[in-house]
């Protein structure tokens, strides 16, 4: 057994530690040969061979509890909303009490408002006060737009967080409207010809209200394609937006543009790294000129996947404006829309592409600004908004949880998930405001996993690799200090999360400092008969469902007695909290 070669979480162990592990393996094998317990998994013996040492699937696991290998942002798992919600109408429903509750469940986090249509946003400072135009013949069916206005009037009367419970018929009409609009949006995306989107003052109010009520920090993407005749960036719309936000005392961070390396293919106009660096410097000066935002954070350049053009742009940008941004942002998507099997989400070669991409980006960043924080933005399991009946299922969770683990081990400070709601099929919440599998994975991650990343040491048994063939790891193991926000566990506890991509059960024995400790298991499996294509998740055998619009289900752990082996069912994801270990790395 081995972890991926590129993963820094596997440390060379000392001869003493290795000797102790070998002793444990031998003891475990000897004891299990005399035991008839059904919990001990064993490969069928070949021919007349007696089951031996090399046929066991036992894995030994220990964690370095002395010091963390990385310390990440408290908002490590963060969210993104696509500007298309302005066009398809869902922006008007961000005041939904249920939607705000679901977003609040993933706080603290950043909320990036950006995507392909960032560079087609135009701010219009219309007061746009909600005005009732008169009653219609049918309160809900005949005057849908008036219903939105009535809702806005009711919200305007509220103090603090403005929340609403929208009638079912109103939501049904919105879903019909959105379905029609999204066909237009998809056509734009496939043709690479985009229309402008106007973000009004009221639109910004609704967006900020959602973020603020949910405990999210808003990062607003600005249009970098608003250009003067000499190709310099036109700041008129941005200055108007900054003044409005400052007047409302909106605490916002900023970003300029989206995948600038792709502008030539999108609009036939290129913006090179030198020009982009000048634009960011101009934006920083603009922020400093508005008193309320003179210390606001600025992130960028939000480059695309690190292929040749994106890397060249990032290199030039970092050389000229690396000190201007507070963190470097880039995007990664795993596959294109041709994927048509759930099993495609389990391919280890696909999962490992992220490590290679992170290495490319961090190499460029460290060459110019060593130690600068790197963020992975716009992350999703597929291009073109995802794949229907696949990227919104349990199967996509393997990519998502592995992304979080890999990014954490390699020091990515923040991962922004595209998208929290609405756009395509990669969202966490569907248009009925129901959480999808990736939401539940994210919620459990937020509840249990803290920002301190720990080194994992693994020893086990595997057959010798065939000559010329690379064996990629199908058992992914990551460890962090348990989240300090979780008051069910004292400081010093450790959370381990394990992804089993094998088609067979795997057994993990806790060794070293983890030995003979009580463990809380949070095992997430697909619910129902759809298997990997399930859109519902069960936690330790219990289906996860919202109790009501404001109440989450209780996430009940299963207690594993001290010394018990962890049994991971095939193709599942589990989180395990090691209680009362008093890890030195996690006490501070």
UniProtKB/TrEMBL annotation:
<comment type="similarity">
    <text>Belongs to the glycosyl hydrolase 79 family.</text>
</comment>
<dbReference type="InterPro" id="IPR017853">
    <property type="entry name" value="GH"/>
</dbReference>
<feature type="signal peptide">
    <location>
        <begin position="1"/>
        <end position="31"/>
    </location>
</feature>
<keyword id="KW-0732">Signal</keyword>
<dbReference type="GO" id="GO:0016798">
    <property type="term" value="F:hydrolase activity, acting on glycosyl bonds"/>
</dbReference>
<dbReference type="Pfam" id="PF03662">
    <property type="entry name" value="Glyco_hydro_79n"/>
</dbReference>
<dbReference type="GO" id="GO:0030198">
    <property type="term" value="P:extracellular matrix organization"/>
</dbReference>
<dbReference type="InterPro" id="IPR005199">
    <property type="entry name" value="Glyco_hydro_79"/>
</dbReference>
<dbReference type="GO" id="GO:0016020">
    <property type="term" value="C:membrane"/>
</dbReference>
<dbReference type="GO" id="GO:0031012">
    <property type="term" value="C:extracellular matrix"/>
</dbReference>
<dbReference type="GO" id="GO:0005615">
    <property type="term" value="C:extracellular space"/>
</dbReference>
<protein>
    <submittedName>
        <fullName>Heparanase 2 (inactive)</fullName>
    </submittedName>
</protein>
């Amino acid at each position: 057994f081995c972890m991926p070669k590129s993963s820094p979480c596997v440390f060379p162990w000392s001869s003493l530690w290795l000797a102790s592990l070998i002793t444990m393996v031998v003891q475990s094998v000897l004891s299990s040969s005399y035991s008839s317990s059904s919990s001990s998994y064993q490969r069928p013996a070949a021919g007349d061979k007696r089951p031996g040492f090399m046929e066991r699937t036992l894995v030994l696991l220990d964690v370095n509890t002395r010091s963390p290998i990385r310390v990440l942002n408290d908002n490590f798992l963060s969210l993104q909303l696509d500007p298309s919600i302005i066009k398809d109408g869902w922006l008007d429903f961000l005041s939904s009490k249920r939607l705000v509750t679901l977003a609040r469940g993933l706080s603290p986090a950043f909320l990036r408002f950006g995507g392909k249509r960032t560079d087609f946003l135009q701010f219009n400072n219309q007061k746009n006060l909600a005005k009732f135009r008169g009653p219609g013949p049918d309160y809900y069916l005949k005057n849908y737009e008036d219903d939105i206005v009535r809702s806005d009037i009711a919200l305007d009367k509220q103090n603090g967080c403005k929340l609403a419970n929208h009638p079912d018929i109103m939501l049904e009409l919105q879903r019909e409207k959105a379905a029609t609009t999204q066909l237009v949006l998809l056509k734009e995306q496939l043709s690479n010809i985009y229309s402008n989107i106007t973000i009004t003052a009221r639109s910004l109010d609704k967006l900020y209200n959602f973020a603020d009520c949910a405990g999210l920090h808003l990062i607003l993407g600005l249009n970098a394609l608003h250009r003067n005749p000499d190709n310099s960036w036109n700041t008129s719309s941005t200055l108007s937006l900054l003044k409005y936000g400052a007047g409302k005392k909106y605490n916002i961070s900023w970003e300029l543009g989206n995948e600038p390396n792709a502008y030539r293919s999108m609009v036939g106009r290129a913006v090179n790294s030198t020009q982009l660096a000048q634009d960011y410097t101009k934006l920083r000066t603009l922020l400093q000129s508005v008193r309320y935002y003179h210390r606001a954070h600025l992130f960028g350049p939000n480059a695309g996947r690190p292929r040749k053009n994106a890397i060249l742009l990032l290199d030039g940008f970092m050389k000229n404006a690396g000190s201007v941004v507070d963190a470097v942002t880039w995007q990664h998507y795993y596959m294109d829309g041709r994927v048509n099997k759930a099993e495609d989400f389990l391919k280890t070669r696909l999962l490992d592409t992220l490590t290679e991409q992170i290495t490319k980006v961090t190499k460029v960043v460290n060459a110019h600004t060593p130690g600068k924080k790197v963020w992975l933005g716009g992350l999703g399991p597929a291009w073109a908004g995802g794949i229907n009946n696949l990227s919104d299922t349990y199967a996509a969770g393997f990519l998502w949880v592995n992304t979080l683990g890999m990014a954490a081990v390699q020091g990515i400070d923040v991962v922004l998930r595209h998208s929290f709601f609405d756009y395509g099929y990669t969202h966490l919440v569907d248009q009925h405001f129901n959480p999808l599998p990736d939401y539940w994975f994210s919620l459990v991650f937020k509840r249990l996993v803290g920002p301190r990343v720990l080194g994992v040491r693994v020893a086990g048994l595997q057959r010798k690799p065939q000559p010329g063939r690379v064996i990629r790891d199908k058992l992914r193991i990551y460890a962090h200090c348990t989240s300090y926000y979780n008051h069910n566990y004292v400081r010093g506890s450790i959370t381990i999360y394990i992804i089993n991509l094998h088609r067979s059960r795997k057994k993990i024995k806790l060794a070293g400092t983890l030995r003979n400790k009580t463990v809380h298991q949070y095992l997430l499996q697909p619910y129902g008969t759809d298997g990997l294509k399930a859109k519902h998740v069960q936690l330790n055998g219990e289906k996860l469902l919202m109790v009501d619009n404001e109440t989450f289900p209780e996430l009940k752990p299963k207690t594993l007695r001290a010394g018990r082996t962890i049994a991971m069912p095939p193709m599942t994801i589990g989180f395990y909290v090691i209680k009362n270990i008093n890890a030195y790395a996690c006490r501070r």
